[in-house]
Write a structure and sequence with these properties.
The protein has 238 residues and is α+β, with helices and mostly antiparallel strands. It has seven helices and eleven strands. The chain has an eight-stranded antiparallel barrel. The protein is globular, with a radius of gyration of 24 Å.
C-alpha cells in the first residue's frame, strides 16, 4: 500500500520533495533563459559565443540572435567606439559580416510571436571604416574573380555612424571600373539630409574583435575582424 509518512517525519519529507521540485523548476528556467540570451553571466561570455559562431558557424541562430540582443540591451559602451571600428590608420580595420537578423524577426520576438533567429551570411562581405579619410566601404566578394564595393563619406554622431555612398566599384575578372553614384540628397537642406536620407548604423557593441550594429531599417547583425591573410591576399578589399 501507498503509505505516506505523517507527523514530523511526514512534514520533513514533504518539504524535501517541494524543495527538490523547486530546484528542478529553477534549473529548467535558467536553461531556458540561457537559450534566450538572458542567462548570460557577463559580456565576456556573450563575446565568446559570437566568436565561436564566427569560427564554426555552428552556434544555433536563435542563440546568436539572443546574444546580439543581450549585448544591445546591455549597452556596454566602448571608450573608443569608432576607434575600435576603424583603427588608427588608413585604410582602416576590415570586418567580415557573419550573421544578420531582420527587423521583422526582431518585431516578432518583441511581440511574443517568435524567439528570434537569423542567418549566417553565405558570401564574403565586409566593411572598412577609414579613420583618416572619414570614408566607409561596404562590399561583397567572390574570391579574386568578382567584387562589388560601395564607398562614401561617413560621420560619427554619438553611437550612430552615418554614411552616404557616392561611388561604386565593380570587378569581374581583369575588368574593373568605378562609377559615381547620383547624389540623392541634392537640393535638400542639411537637417532633411541628416534625418531622412542618409543610412546609418547604431553601435550596439564594438571591441577589437567583434562588432554588433543595428541598421536604419531595424535589422541587427554582427561582424568579426577579417583574417589578415585574406586581406593581404586580396580576398576581401583587395
Amino acid at each position: 500500500p501507498d503509505v505516506r509518512p505523517t507527523g514530523v517525519c511526514g512534514r520533513v519529507a514533504t518539504a524535501r520533495r517541494v524543495e527538490t521540485a523547486t530546484k528542478k523548476h529553477l534549473a529548467r528556467g535558467k536553461e531556458t533563459e540561457r537559450e534566450e540570451g538572458e542567462g548570460m553571466v557577463d559580456v565576456g561570455e556573450a563575446i565568446r559565443t559570437l566568436q565561436r559562431a564566427s569560427e564554426t558557424r555552428a552556434v544555433p541562430p536563435q542563440q546568436v540572435y539572443a546574444t546580439m540582443r543581450w549585448l544591445e540591451k546591455k549597452r556596454t559602451v566602448h571608450p573608443n567606439g569608432y576607434g575600435a571600428m576603424a583603427g588608427a590608420r588608413s585604410p582602416g580595420r576590415t570586418w567580415r559580416l557573419v550573421f544578420t537578423s531582420s527587423a521583422k524577426q526582431i518585431r516578432d520576438e518583441m511581440r511574443g510571436k517568435g524567439r528570434g533567429g537569423g542567418t549566417y551570411f553565405p558570401l564574403v562581405a565586409g566593411q572598412q571604416w577609414d579613420p583618416e579619410r572619414s570614408v566607409m566601404r561596404n562590399g561583397v566578394f567572390l574570391g579574386h574573380y568578382a567584387s562589388m564595393v560601395f564607398e562614401g563619406p561617413t560621420e560619427e554622431r554619438g553611437t550612430k555612424m552615418r554614411f552616404d555612398f557616392d561611388r561604386l566599384t565593380l570587378k569581374l575578372g581583369p575588368w574593373k571600373k568605378t562609377f559615381d553614384l547620383p547624389n540623392q540628397t541634392k537640393g535638400k537642406d542639411e537637417e532633411t539630409k541628416a534625418r531622412k536620407l542618409e543610412p546609418f548604423f547604431v553601435r550596439c557593441y564594438v571591441d577589437d574583435d567583434v562588432m554588433v550594429l543595428r541598421g536604419k531599417g531595424g535589422g541587427i547583425a554582427f561582424w568579426s575582424r577579417a583574417d589578415e591573410r585574406d586581406v593581404q591576399q586580396g580576398l576581401i578589399f583587395g
